[in-house]
Amino acid sequence: MRSIPKPLGANFETSNVLQKCTNEISEQILKDAFNNSRAVILNAAQQYDRAGEQAALVNVLPDNRSKESICLNGLTKEQFSKLYSNQMVKKEVPRREVYDQLKNRAPYGKCPFCGYCDVDQLDHYLPKSKYPLLTILPLNLVPSCPYCNGGKNAEIATTPEEQILHPYYDHGIIMGHQWIFATVVETKPAALKYFVLVPDHFDPIAAKRAATHFKKNNLGGRYSTQAADQISTFPLVLEDFFTNGGAANVKKNLFIQYQAEYAKYKNSWQTAMYQALSDSDWYCSGGFR
To answer: Would you state the pLDDT for residue 9?
Structure first.
C-alpha cells in the first residue's frame, strides 16, 4: 500500500482538463453540450473532493442507468465515457499528457493499491460507468496495475466500511501505522501467510476499510506468492550468517532488513515478510534451509 499526494496545480485542475478534452471535439453540437455542462461537472468535482477528505465517497450517489441514458444537457453516459477514452487516453492526442503525468506520479512506478505491481493504467476510483460526471476528474483517476483495476471493475461500496482505501485521501491509514503482517508457515520451503491486524486506536470504520482493501485486492494471496519467490533466494546468504554467528546473527540481519523496509513503507509485503522471518526462531535456527 502506498499513498500519493493529490494531483494539484493548473495542469490537473478539472476546468483545464475539461477544456483540453473538449477543444478538439469536431462535432460542434457535442462540444457545445460539454461546454454548457461545465458548471455542473465542476460542482461534481468539488463535491467529490469534499467527500474524499471526509472518507465519505460512498455518499456520492451513482447513476445506475444504461450507458445510452441521457445524464446531462443531452449527453449520454457513453458520450462522457468516450470523452475520456477518445480525448484523454489515446496516445496520439495532446491531452494524453495529463493521463501520462497522472500515471507517472505513482511512487517508483508501482501500483499504490497493492504496492508491488507496475502501474499500467489509470483506475477510476468511482467507476465511470456509474459516475459519468467524474470521468475525467484527476482526483478520481489513480495510477493502477491491471490486476487491482480489473479486480475492482465497476463495483462500488454501499457502506463506509466497504470502501477500499484511496491513495489520494487515506494517507493516515496507508502510511501512518503498520496493519499488514505475516506469519511463517513452517514448511520446506518456508512460506508466509499474510493477514490484517489494525492498531487498537483505529476507529471501527478505518479498521474495516483496511480489511476490505486487503480482501478485495487479494493482497494475502498475492503477497504470499511474492514472498515465496523472494524467500527462495535466501538460503545461501542466511547460511553464511548462520555459520558466522548462529541463529542470533540470522535474526539480526533479517531484523535490519525489516527496519529498512519499515522506514520506507509500513504496509508492504517486504516489511511484513522480514518482520515475520526475523521473529521466527524456527526459521532463524535453520528453517531457511
So the answer is: 93
Evaluate whether 164 touches 196 at the Cβ level (below 8 Å): no
E strands of the chain, at which residues? 70-72, 75-76, 121-124, 141-144, 180-185, 191-196
- Distance of alpha carbon 88 from alpha carbon 128, whole angstroms: 14
For residue range 169-228, what is the model confidence (pLDDT) as tens digits?
999 999 999 999 999 999 999 999 999 999 999 999 999 999 999 999 999 999 999 999
- Domain borders along the chain are 10-158, 176-287
Residue whose C-alpha cell reads 493477514 in the numeric block: 195
* CA-wise closest residue to 285 among 254, 258, 250: 250
Alpha carbon separation from 217 to 10, 12, 222, 264, 266 (Å, rounded): 32, 27, 9, 21, 18
Query: What is the value of pTM for the model shown?
Result: 0.93
Q: What digits encode the pLDDT tens for the residues 128-163?
A: 999 999 999 999 999 999 999 987 766 789 999 999
Q: Residue 124 is placed in which grid cell?
A: 477510476
Quick one: which H or E segment has residue 81? helix 77-84
Closest among 210, 192, 214 to 202, alpha carbons compared: 210
Question: What whole-number distance in Å separates Cα of residue 3 and Cα of residue 73?
Answer: 36
